[in-house]
What we know:
Number of helices: 16
Number of domains: 2
Shape: globular
Amino acid sequence: MNTLKAFLKRFLIILLSLTGLVLLAFGVYVLISQGTESDSHQAYLKKNMEQIALDSSPSFQIFDQEFYQNQVILLGETHGYQAPQELDFIILKHLNARAGVRNYLAEVDYCQAWFLNKYLRTGDENFLKIVFEPWINQAQWGSEEFYNKIKKIHALNASLPAGRQIRFLGIDKIHSIATVKAFLGEFLDEVNYQPTPGSQIDSLRAYLLGEAAPKEAIGRVAGKVLEDIDQKEAFYRDLLGEHCPSFRHFIQNVAYLDSNTPTDSLMLSNLTFLTNQLGLAREKMYGLWGYYHTLQSPLRIGVPFAALVKRSDLPFRDKVVSLNILSLGSDMMIPPGFKPQPPDGKVGYFNNNGPFVFVDGIKDLKAVTEDNSVTIFKLDEPGSPYRQSQKLARVKTWVARSFIPEDDVVTTDLFQYAVLVRDSEALTPLRN
């Protein structure tokens, strides 16, 4: 018995020692990952910041003349927070009034954008529901705030002349097969398509409306339709007239379901098509995107969409600006598939000061801002310390892939404005 007690005592001592070492290592990791406070960085930030009231129409004095010369303006977020949805709308409204921006470059697919635009034109919420219903209980996009933001854009459009009314440009990969089915039916009805011998459109429609099939199988069928369109271009042009290029683009995106094409590369291809189709070479575009996609230089894990745009032959490749949102003290609406799922569907531990996500330099932003605030910082003024380091650009996480730039990259190569959101509420999930 004494031997057993001695063993248990030694085991407990070893266990406590190991626990202490783990906690100490975690504490050191937290301190290193957040970085130390910097007087020089804070002095710069205080001179180049503007606190934004989300319940007003800010002047955005932080944006200089050069900012408005850009043609692709991207606001990057970590999905799940409420404040970015509010900020997104007031920036869109401001850019529409100040710079005539009417193209909302969206992280939605071609089919979803088509239905969103039908809603904006008609006000019929049935079109809006086609987009949102597949997201309910499935994705962070299925939120009341996002839904209501689209309604606010519709109301804004009602006050604008036709030439300034906002429209959606959807360039993301296919989000939902249900939306694809709805689009195919609506599109073919609008162009008065009739079943025609030799047309592969009929086989695709029959396949989609039949028994449920894996998305890869649907992609393979679409790939065969795409091959047929390319081989019999004149035949399909006679069937679909001026709508043939749009239909081919739709089929191409469905075919991507059976492809290993990286999402960001796919986005670039879709933007290139829309640029040519809609004559966007001189147009300005703005949109709210996932944080990674807005980064303008390659990371160790890949090449984001904005970086691909800057590497491309697109006419606006040198006119891209990114504003990237960081968060403190805020609650996030957790993705529905996340386990364990908290009872209210929201958590507060994915902010950029830990315990799971850390941004080097976040302490400097916290030091110069207030609780319950949204503040925009311009990072690329001459003499900015962010033009000489990677502070704010290194995002380390324990739960997903870390965003670490290449060694020769500085913060302003990735994004030119930082936005700190403090104490935001979580998004509110849409319910059936």
